[in-house]
Amino acid sequence: MSEAQQTRERILRAATDVFAQHGLSGGRVKLVARVAKSNERMIYYYFRSKEGLFIAVLENVYRQMWEAENALELDRSPPLDAIRAMVDFTLDHYLTHPEMLTILNNENLHRGRYVSKSKKMKRLSSPALDLMSKIYDRGVEEGVFRSGLDPLQIYLSILALNYFYVSNRYTLSAYLGLDLAGEQLKLWRRWVAEMVVRAVKAN
User: Fold this and answer.
1) What three-state secondary structure class fits 201?
2) How many helices (H) and strands (E) does the chain have?
3) In angstroms, how far is CA 26 from the centroid of its own chain?
4) Distance (Å, rounded) from C-alpha 72 to C-alpha 134?
5) Does domain 55-200 bear CATH number 2.60.40.10?
6) How much of the chain is helix, strand and coil, in % rounded to 5?
7) When you count CB atoms within 10 A of the terminal residue's CB, does the N or C end of the chain come out lower?
8) Burial code of 96-134, b = ≥16 C-beta within 10 A, e = fewer?
9) Residue-wise pLDDT tens digits, 112-126
């Protein structure tokens, strides 16, 4: 990796931390430069604006998730195992990347204003949906999945169930009087996997 690439990556990591902690409005370019041990001029050189930097951060958190998911090579696993593995992966990725959740929550407050401007987002989402389609199609061919389902809905179900649990576990723990970060997390993992498998499994 060239020095220029290293500088850009360092700025991107710093911006991820700053935006995760302070949000878009509070994430000052000056603070990003300080955390990155760089200067504002370099940030504007690589990303043109604070908005451009935030969009790059959004693209990067999605890219990291897809690359980690792709490394599992789930399209080579038995379909039912692949579904369970995707549930586990998604839950674990959210747990180990809390910055992704806070950044996406912040972007949702802006109603997707910035992520919709990304020219790369479609390319980032397509492989994930293609993977789910391959898993589902193979499951139907092998007779383990029922036909007529939409792979998109399967994928969204896995993302939504785990995203809601992880992003709301602290408030829900207080509200319900339970430790949703403890044993309940293990139960939720099994519950989501079983729920999705039951939804797609052939009778």
Assistant:
1) strand
2) 9, 0
3) 22
4) 14
5) no
6) 80, 0, 20
7) C
8) ebebbbbbbebbeeeeeebbeebeebeebeeebeebbbb
9) 999 999 988 878 788
Nearest to 115 by CA among 59, 77, 176, 75: 59
| Domain boundary assignment for the chain | 1-48, 55-200
CA distance linking residue 72 with residue 86, whole number of Å: 9
150-194 pLDDT, tens digit per residue, is 999 999 999 999 999 999 999 999 999 999 988 999 999 999 999
Contact criterion met (CB below 8 Å) for 193 and 87 = yes
pTM for the complete prediction?
A: 0.93
Per residue in 34-73, pLDDT tens?
999 999 999 999 999 999 999 999 999 999 999 999 999 9
d(CA 120, CA 55): 10
| Structural fold of domain 1-48 | Arc Repressor Mutant, subunit A (1.10.10)
